Amino acid sequence: MSRLFGSVRARAALGATLVVAVALVAAGAAVLLALYANLTEQAGADAERTAREAAARIAAGQRYEDLPVDEDDPPLQVVDKDGRLLAATGKLERISGTGSTAVRPEQQPAAPRGDGDDDDAGEGDDDDDSSPEPGEIGDEVSFEDGSATIDGDTADYRFAAVEVDLPHGDRVTVYAGAPLAAEQNAVDTALTAMLIGFPLLLGVVGGVTWLVTRRALRPVEGIRREMAEITASEDLSRRVPEPDTHDEVARLASTTNETLAALESSVERQRRFVADASHELRSPIASLRTQLEVAAAHPELLDLEGAVEDTVRLQRLAADLLLLARLDAGERPADARVDLGALAREEAAGRTGVSVTADSVEVAGSRGQLGRVLANLLDNAQRHARSAVSVAVRREGDRAVVQVADDGEGVPVADRERIFERFVRLDAARSRDEGGAGLGLAIARDVAVRHGGTLTVRDAAAGGAQFELRLPLG
Fold first, then answer.
1. Long-range contact pairs involving 225-231 (C-beta distance under 8 Å, separation at least 24)
2. 400 plus 459 within the same structural domain
3. 456: enclosing H helix or E strand
4. CA atoms of 347 and 343, how far apart (whole Å)
5. Is residue 44 in some structural domain?
6. Which one of 128, 272, 395, 451 is separated from 228 by 20 to 30 angstroms, measured CA to CA?
7. Residue 396's domain spans which residues?
8. Does residue 418 sit in the same domain as residue 454?
9. Is residue 261 part of a domain?
10. pLDDT digits 0-9 by tens, 156-187
11. Residue 433 shares a structural domain with residue 344
12. Backbone φ, ψ for residue 358 (5° rounding)
């Protein structure tokens, strides 16, 4: 069960079903309440109409026994102000929700007469004296739900109460009921339809959500399966399938392939780095070992100067490899303030044929790493210069610019990016002793990038190469 609901499809289907269920229950309850209120209001209007018709007859002086209280009609009661039943529907057996629970009148007056009228009035009285005075029907009407039993049948009713003020202070209340059976049947029918339809609708919503989610996640499963195979085979040249859509899944696949490409490039770069480093280390180590073995057998043949040079070269190469390893590991440069002008003059001091024109420009970073960049650029320029190397430091907008130029042969346009790769030497005939291991420019660019800057090369004014370092001001 936990595995089932661990599926995105299952959770999506369950979530959609629950949301729709809550919405349907809320909507269904609102519909039922509105339907019940509407039908109850209609029943109240029918009851009020019946009550006012009877009240109008009473106000006009009609006798209570002559009121339309047929046994087939809805329940009707006329109650005086003391709560005595004056008239009621025939065959009424029980009633609730009105002003009186009585079902038979206690007395049956002839008519709602005035105080001066009685049944023993002489025949000589004129018509105006024997006619009852008109009554007044109240404007207010009240409603109450109740029930009544007529001729053995019990039903619920909506009762309306209308008051009639008769002459000389008499007051009666007319209660008329309208059956609620039709309203209850309509509500029951609607409720039954909802109880049958809602589960079916929820099933359809859950099923459709399951299918749609399954279809939408099918590319994700393809990506997962391909990634699992890539992990098992360790073949980073493979790529996950990209769906022909423009949605989030397609962007996920594209990003995954970009990540795989970057990872493949990084791993390949690391492999080349290890291979090249092993190759570069092998030469000085082999040379140093040969010299030591010769010295052990023939001490008089020891080339002490060559052994020291090989040791120094090995030390520098190890330092370069360690620095590259730290840069690859994402080591953040220090956040100290460095005066590039002073640093350039410091690195150029003691070098033959190097001229410096440097303003005082401060940047934030590692003094040691930036000094290494300038040293590497100067070493490279002196190796390729015919006679002179120039260094210029200035400010351009929000950037510090360092230019190192020589008067050598320059760098071909096709190789201006390749020279910043590790272990690359353009002059294949140049010996390692003279040309180095090909790490200086790679280290310089990596340090520049880590400091938020750039390092590029172009033609110098003197015809050689000009390396330009740009860093954000501190």
1. 227/256, 230/260
2. yes
3. strand 454-459
4. 6
5. no
6. 272
7. 333-472
8. yes
9. yes
10. 889 999 998 887 778 889 998 888 888 888 88
11. yes
12. -135, 125
Alpha carbon 78 to chain centroid, angstroms: 67
Q: Per the confidence metrics, is the pTM higher than 0.90? A: no
State the Cα–Cα distance between residues 281 and 193, nearest whole angstrom. Answer: 85
278: which 2 tokens? 């092993």
- In a shared domain, residues 308 and 352: no
Same domain, 287 and 369: no
The set of residues, in sequence order, having a beta carbon less than 8 Å from that of 123 and lying 6+ positions away, is: none
Same domain? For 377 and 423 the reply is: yes
Asked whether 237 and 260 are in contact (CB, 8 A), the reply is: no
Tens digit of each residue's pLDDT (9 = 90 or more) over 205-236? 888 888 888 787 788 888 888 889 888 888 88
Q: 136 phi and psi, to 5 degrees?
A: -125, 130
pLDDT tens per residue across span 270-293? 777 777 777 777 777 887 788 788
The Cα 230–Cα 256 span in angstroms is 12
Beta strands, E only, 350-437: 354-358, 362-365, 389-396, 399-406
Domain check: are 404 and 282 in the same one? no
Bridge partners of residue 364, in order along the sequence: 337
Report if residue 30 sits inside a domain. Answer: no
In 3D space, the residue among 31, 39, 89 whose CA is nearest the CA of residue 64 turns out to be 89
Specify the CATH number for the domain of residue 283: 1.10.287
Report the C-alpha dihedral over residues 419, 424, 425, 428, rounded to 10 degrees.
Answer: -130
Q: Name the domain boundary from 289, 315, 341.
A: 315
Q: And the tokens for 135?
A: 């009554």
User: Residue 303's closest CA among 314, 315, 290, 319?
Assistant: 290
**Within-domain flag for 256:** yes
Residue pair 422/321 in contact (Cβ under 8 Å)? The answer is no
